[in-house]
Amino acid sequence: MGAQQVRDDFAGLYGAEPEGVWSAPGRVNLIGEHTDYNDGFVMPFALPHVATAAVTRRDDGVLRLHSADVEGGVVELRVDALAPESDRNWTAYPAGVVWALREAGHPVTGADVHLASTVPTGAGLSSSAALEVVIALALNDLYELGLQRWQLARLCQRAENVYVGAPTGIMDQTASACCTRGHALFLDTRDLSQRQIPLDLAAEGMRLLVVDTQVKHAHSDGEYGKRRAGCEKGAALLGVDALRDIPYDGLDAALARLGDEDEVVRLVRHVVTEDQRVEHVVALLESGETRAIGPVLTAGHASLRDDFRISCPELDLVVDTALASGALGARMTGGGFGGSAIVLAEAADVETVTKAVESAFAAAGFTAPRTFEAVPSAGALRVS
Ligand code: GLA
């Protein structure tokens, strides 16, 4: 849905033009999975799919929320009555951001909001982060809060962790807030230092496909939290602040120290090798060896499947089929247990790979996947 439509729908709903319109994208993660809550490295880029919000300030303590994507009318809340984990609906994301801003001392006294999103939900493409960031950016502008993008990302993460109740890391919100067109974001999640890495696969005759398996996932259920708790246990047993602090060449010794804590061993091995894979991919991209990232992506999938154990048959089928039909690399992306996989392929092989995956899904009796090409797009911005 276009920004003008969102503006017009706002005017129809609330009887006046909005003060402005903002957008914030979903993301796909190239490499660096489940590293963000271990203070590690990630490398997402923004999708062309965005959440768009038309917003006007209010000074009477009322927050009115409406979405073009959800049945039902305007939801009216009072900003001083917002309470963590009180809301299980989509409204928890925008309301959570208002709560987080106010809790941090920012004088947000209400808003009228109309939202529409083109980011697929439950697909591991950060539809919720897009909703959070678009609201945060709009309120930052309208209330002249002067917060920087990384600060908005932190507040959005807090909204998701505390208000929504999902124990996620900082990657998705930072990606939505800080990515730039034509680049992947190399992010150190410990201090949020960033480097924009140029990524123009088409110029080199390649494509990156996102294959949405249509298997829905959610992070507020237990498995994500269990992995996170396991990683924290590993850090505690090894006497480090976070798994990020284990040097790559000290991994074997660290695993030996964990002895027969098999599950923790697997989690630690994934996180440490995944950080190393992110740095490897950055080095390859910066030295122009783009095709060589394929096997690194594929190794990342094996680690998520075998060590972190968060893949599923549909994701494995995408990866195996894509590789067997000529892809350069493939891996699940995002939190896991469903959602999407990415496939790096020569442009000339895209059709063969796509058809092979579709046929494999049909043969396995799985719901048909949805495939689209992902091009690094703009981060959150004011549209009008
Ligand atoms: C989800 C979370 C992120 C990150 C990924 C896994 O997308 O929101 O913080 O942990 O899973 O890399």
From TrEMBL:
Subcellular location, principal: cytoplasm
Q: Which PROSITE patterns match?
A: GALACTOKINASE (PS00106), GHMP_KINASES_ATP (PS00627)
Q: What is its EC number?
A: 2.7.1.6
User: Which pathway features in its UniProt record?
Assistant: Carbohydrate metabolism; galactose metabolism
- Reaction catalysed? alpha-D-galactose + ATP = alpha-D-galactose 1-phosphate + ADP + H(+)
Site described as Transition state stabilizer, positions? 27
Recorded GO molecular functions are:
ATP binding; galactokinase activity; magnesium ion binding
Q: What InterPro entries does the record tag this protein with?
A: Galactokinase, Galactokinase_bac, Galactokinase_CS, GalKase_N, GHMP_kinase_C_dom, GHMP_kinase_C_sf, GHMP_kinase_N_dom, GHMP_knse_ATP-bd_CS
The family database entries (Gene3D superfamilies) matched by this protein are listed as: 3.30.230.10, GHMP kinase, C-terminal domain
Q: Domain GHMP kinase N-terminal spans what residues?
A: 93-178
Keyword Repressor carried by entry: no
Q: Where is the Galactokinase N-terminal domain?
A: 9-56
Give the UniProt keywords, A-Z: ATP-binding, Carbohydrate metabolism, Cytoplasm, Galactose metabolism, Kinase, Magnesium, Metal-binding, Nucleotide-binding, Transferase
Which superkingdom heads the taxonomic lineage of this protein's source?
Answer: Bacteria
Query: What role does it play?
Result: Catalyzes the transfer of the gamma-phosphate of ATP to D-galactose to form alpha-D-galactose-1-phosphate (Gal-1-P).
The UniProt entry, under HAMAP family, shows:
Galactokinase
Protein name according to UniProt: Galactokinase
